[in-house]
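Notes from the 1:1 (GR / supervisor)

We went over the backlog. Supervisor wanted to see one worked example end to end before approving the batch request, so GR pasted a single chain during the call. The sequence is below; no edits were made to it. Supervisor asked that the structure be written out right there so they could see what the output format looks like.
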Amino acid sequence: MDLTRNCRITYESLAQKYGFTATAIRQRVINLVEAGIIQEFTIYLSPAMVGTEHVYVLLSTDSSQGEDLIDEIGENPNVLLAGFLSTDTCSVYGDYIGTSGLSELITHLRSLEGVIDITIHYLLVARGERMDFKKLHLRVLGCLYKDPRMSATEISSRTGLTARRVRRVIQELTDGAAVYFTIRWNPNAADATAFMSEIHYDESQVSAQEVLSKIREQYPDEFCEVYSLICATEPIVFTVFLVDHHRRAEHITHEIRHYSFVSSITTLIPYPTKKYDGLRRRRLREILEEAEVL
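Structure output shown during the call:
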């Protein structure tokens, strides 16, 4: 999960945190890439930089279209991720700008053959910050767009900037929270099993953050908090866990169901998903192309 928050985190930092050698951490990351668990390292702009809002949509289908439906969903530029949760339920995570962008996305989803009904969840997300990119930022970003983990030495050789200046620019970018350095991963490629829980809670007793805090405290090694989704208009959170057996998933679901503030919980097993660039990565590319650094 550390790489999800910042894919440029050093092996040395991870080694200090987890008590391994930097060499062992490096080999672990290589193994995750080779196994297909880490699909790619990527960067994109913060929501604040582009003005995007986020939505999670569940589609009830008649199962007639199969993977063709996922491909058709991905044709819409607002889609970030799409995949099946069961043979007849599909999930879509997307971002949009304004009511016209939302309308375009929802109209597209409703029009697809095989879609019976849709449920829309508007999401609360971290907005990040806005930042005015200077020429130095853009020159470095032109390299990081191609390889988010490119070393400062390599960027220096490509841009003509000193390695020291490159490091300073990268630090400004990460501290500025206007650019996210992250990974795309496929938990289904691991030996472990990923599952999602749709949790309805009593908002008169707890907040969404308190629900997540309770889960984090009880399941620190299995709860993938960075992939949690908080609904903006309903007392619902979607949580993701990574467990070693489906029986463990049943056990966790059973325990959460008995939290005093939980009114219901539904377990969803995600199939492999397809991922798309979305508005924020495409906007970053446009900025870099306009600056002629890409």
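Supervisor's comment: The first helix runs from residue 2 to 5.
Batch request approved.
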